[in-house]
Structure formats: C-alpha cells, structure tokens
Hints:
The longest helix has 34 residues. The strands form 2 sheets. Strands 3-2-1-4-5 form a 5-stranded mixed beta sheet, with helices on both faces. It has a two-stranded antiparallel ribbon with strand order 6-7. By secondary structure, the chain is α/β, with parallel strands linked by helices. It folds into 3 domains: 101 residues, Ribonuclease H-like superfamily/Ribonuclease H (Nucleotidyltransferase, domain 5, 2-Layer Sandwich); 95 residues, no CATH class; 120 residues, no CATH class. The protein is built from 13 helices and 7 strands.
Amino acid sequence: MSDHAIHIIGIDLGKNWFHLAAMDAHGKLIYRKKFGRNQLADFIFTLKPCIAAMESCPGSQFWGRRLRDAGHTVRIIPAQFVRPYLKSNKNDFNDAEAIAEARSRGGMRFVALKTTDQLELQALHRVRQRFIVERTAVVNQMRALLIEHGIVIPVGRALFARRLPKILEDVENGLSMRLRGLIERLRRRWLLIDDELESVSGEITQVATDSELCRRVRTVPGVGPIVSTAIVAAVGTGTAFRRARDMSAWLGLVPSQYSTGSKPNRGRISKRGNAYLRMMLIQGARALLIHMKREQSRMGLWLRELEKRSHPHVALIALANKIVRICWKVLTSGNEYQPFQERPKMS
C-alpha cells in the first residue's frame, strides 16, 4: 500500500535504531520498518504529512521537533498510557505498534513539545538538583564516619559546617590522621559542590529576571526565581491545560479518587506528574504559610479560616494547589497577579 494511506506512524525511539509501525485511518497495520538515525532523518521528509506518535523518553523532544519541521503532527505519549496497548511479547516493533494504537484513541493524553529555551531551563534545574543530592550524600557520609567514632552532631547542615573545623582540629577526639584526611577531602568536595550550586542557581535567577513569563509568574505569592523557572520549563504558557484544575491535577495536588455506585471516595493527593515541580511548589507554599500576614489579603483570610478546621499539612497542600491555579491564570491571561484586598467591614 502506498504512503498516501498512512494515517499514524508509531515510532519506538532508540539510540541508534528506530522501529516504525504505520497504520491507516481504520487502525489497520500497513507496514513495519527499521531505520538507523540518519535513515530516519531522511525518511521523515519523504513521508507525506501524517500523525507521528512516540513515547515520552530522552530524545522524544528532539525527534518531535524534527518531525514537526517535516510537516507532521507530533504526539508524544506518556509511557504508562502506551503499556496497556502492547498486545503480545515486548519487542521494538510491537512497542511501535502499541504507540500507534494508543495514539488512535480519541481520549489519549499527550506531552507537549517544549521549546529549546524550556529544555535548557529544565537542564539547569536538573543539574542544580543533582548538585543538591550529591551534597546531601557527601554530608551524610561525613556524619556516618564521625558517628562510628562516637562523634555525633545534631541535624542541620549549617550547624555541621560550623562544628566540623573544630572537630578536625581536636587532637583528643580519637580520630586518626588518615580519617581526618578523608573527612577533609569530603569537606573540600562539599565546598566545591556549594560553589557549583551557587553558580547554577545564579544562572536560574538571571533567567527568571530576563524572562517575561517568569517575571509574571513571580508576582504570585509563594513563587520565587527557582519556582517560577521550574513552572515555565515544565508547562511554558500553560495552554496545554484547558483550566486551572487540570494543571493542578497534572501535578498530583488534587485528591485521588476511588468511586463506585455513585458514592465518591476521596483519598490523599494523587502525587502524579512532575514530582520535582510539585516539591518546589510545596516548598514555596510552606514559606508563604509561615510569612503571610493573614489579615492583609483575601487569600490570607481564606488561609486563616482553612487553618481553623484543617490539619496543617492539609492547609499546606491546599495552599500549593491555589498557587498552581493562580499561576495557570497568570500564564494564560498575560496579566500579572492582582490580589484581592480584604473586604471592608460593614459598620
């Protein structure tokens, strides 16, 4: 059958080899093909425009842009939504067919294509988080080495940093010269990571200052340079979501549901979607929870009433949920956040 009958191609991405499954408008498999990297780059420009579907994975954004530039309609599908359509044993061609089958479903959900600026901003956040994880591992290892010799330091990285020089200088604490040297190496590694972390954080702050989208999001209470850039890197202008609740649900900040027989059962938050962004938003909400002056805005009054009847953790998540919804409105409307002032009291 000729290429003009192709409606959907499912592409199983790899490092060097790519497997394609082509379907017509009725969902019938037309052919399967295997391409190398350069072969695929040439093939997509010879293929007549159709729907190109891929799993969300490293490389999907790159190939999504290449396919879009070749005139195709690109759909990137989360991996967990493709898995149910795998009919038989798992192999590359069956994976490609499952991707095409998943795309043929009208209610399927997709991952939006990101701009190169978003990908670079996302990379900055990933590298920053990598430094944070590495620093935590170094500090924990230093603590463990000291505990084995009876030296216990209370929790807190700043307190540990202040006490460590005195511990290394104390000749009567039982530490050998070799162990002191090892801990001193870890200390230098810690300081180097701090320098790298400060440098990357400075780059993120500069992006937050230069980007119009980030500046607009930073007008929302509880959102600073780190959170604003993380939001823009993940959702861009927010137009992938029809309403604010959809963005909040995508981040897993709404209750999970198990409903049957017209009886709604709601549980804890679903914790779906971008775990890093959800963590950043909750941290911003926690800071706002501590420092917000409740009597100066409508949000503060709402929060004060919520705290009276809810557990502090519930109030924290509810505040993070509200921040997300406001961010969606700010992103999609093109306007800065305008807080509602406290209603005047009636005499």
